[in-house]
Amino acid sequence: MSLWTSLEPASATVDPGGSTRVRLRLRNTGDVVDEYRFEPVGGIAPWTTVEPQTLRLYPGTTGTVDLTFAPPRTPDATAGPNPYAVRITPTEHPEAVTVPEGNLTITPFTEVRAELVPPTVKGRFRGRPRLAVDNLGNTKLTASISGSDNGDQLSYDIHPGNVQIEPGRAAFVKASLKPRKIIWFGPKEQRPYTLNVLRSGANPLPVEGTYLQRGFLPRWLATFLGAALALALTFLMLWIAYKPQVRTTATEQLKDASVSTLAPAPSPTASVPAPPTATAAAPPPVAVTSTAAAAGGGGGGSTASAKPKPKPATAATAVKKLAAKDSGRHICYRAFIAGDGWTDAVCDGAATGTVDDAKQITALNIAVSGSLGSAANAFIHNPASTDGNGMWEPQWTAIIADNTDNYIGSSKDGAPYMTGLAINIGSGQVCETTRNTGYDWGGQGCADARPKYIFGGTLDNSRWLVAVKFTV
């Protein structure tokens, strides 16, 4: 090989969102003039710039090339050491490729975003908001969740109380708010509260919400009951005041009867008629109505002879067929494509949706077997978004039993498209793989049984779902 190279320095450090420069020094040790082409390779190649991209050297001369590294401030820029390399290809001898290697350390950064879904909850005895915590940093996030309010008016049941979130992922925390004092009568009252995301060595991240506590009995019902009680008391007093005097003559009649009654005279034996036979007692046969007779002999056209419409082949229809063949765990699903309608149901890791990035998924139909039911929620387009993110539907579905259809999103005309989803099951693991417009298939994500969840898709308001896969 007729080339000598040196990286100065061989190891460098850079902050996400910043840049650093490494100098590549090389010498032509051959005896002919040669031109060298430079190409960055490795995991951080997309963030690497080489200047100049070609260099011409005479025998025995030395040249330099600058490598500039500019990793973005996103979860993709993994914290820690990241090896890199530069492929050098001589023009005169393309088979004599040289690949000097170095090491770039990306410093860690933490960025957390939290949102209450919904920000306002209503209830008489408790409220159940959910807290979505997004890790936008490049290191694993460990945090605990606590609740507080002014005046200690609420008690908090938070599950899970601690979360660990990988970079670029989100976790969902259930909170149950219980008022310490019940409002029996009167108007509803607002009780502001705060859920705090606590991290070691960092200030708490407060997320404010409102619990709207309703009275046990509304004011109109209390007024109605009071008026009804007043009317009942008035009627009772009038009844007592004007109660009619009732006198009975039963005693006198009995006294007269005791004086005038004589011993009864013997009567001749009377013959008792025999009970009617079963034939005599049987009711007459019911005559067939002319309409029924016509329906039986008309040979078509009647309501009774019309064939029922076939049921649509939903996800539950497909998963029941699989469950009938074996007692294992299965998941079936189908997607509603705006403008095209429902796709056919597929199962256990097959892809559903579309290959056309212009088509949008607005709803999903899911059914499981052998998994103790499923619950899910849709992350949908928010036309009023100010931060570039979509929004969650107002609430999760209930826990839908095995072999039963579960629907998220909407199949109505003009419904907002989905950008992501969350799902859980009652036993085992559930895994998802999603594809959004402009992106390739993402990596598979899995979650253990309820209360854990798995999120698929993106929070980006402009990237709709085009295809999904599930396994259990």
* N-to-C CA distance: 55 Å
Number of helices: 5
The largest sheet is:
5 strands, mixed
Low-confidence stretches: 248-274, 277-305
Q: How many domains, in number, for the residues?
A: 3
- The total beta strand count reads 31
Q: Largest beta sheet: what is the strand line-up?
A: 2-9-8-4-6
Rounded mean pLDDT score: 85
The helix/strand class is: mainly beta
* Shape label: elongated
Top keywords for this entry?
472 residues; mainly beta; Immunoglobulin-like; five-stranded mixed sheet; 5 helices; elongated; transmembrane; transmembrane helix
Structure report:
This protein has three domains: 104 residues, Immunoglobulins (Immunoglobulin-like, Sandwich); 102 residues, Immunoglobulin-like; 157 residues, no CATH class. The strands form seven sheets. A five-stranded mixed sheet has the order 2-9-8-4-6, with no helix packed on it. It has a five-stranded mixed sheet with strand order 11-18-17-13-15, with no helix packed on it. Strands 19, 20, 21, 23 and 26 form a five-stranded antiparallel sheet that branches. The protein contains five helices and 31 strands. The chain has 472 residues and is mainly beta.
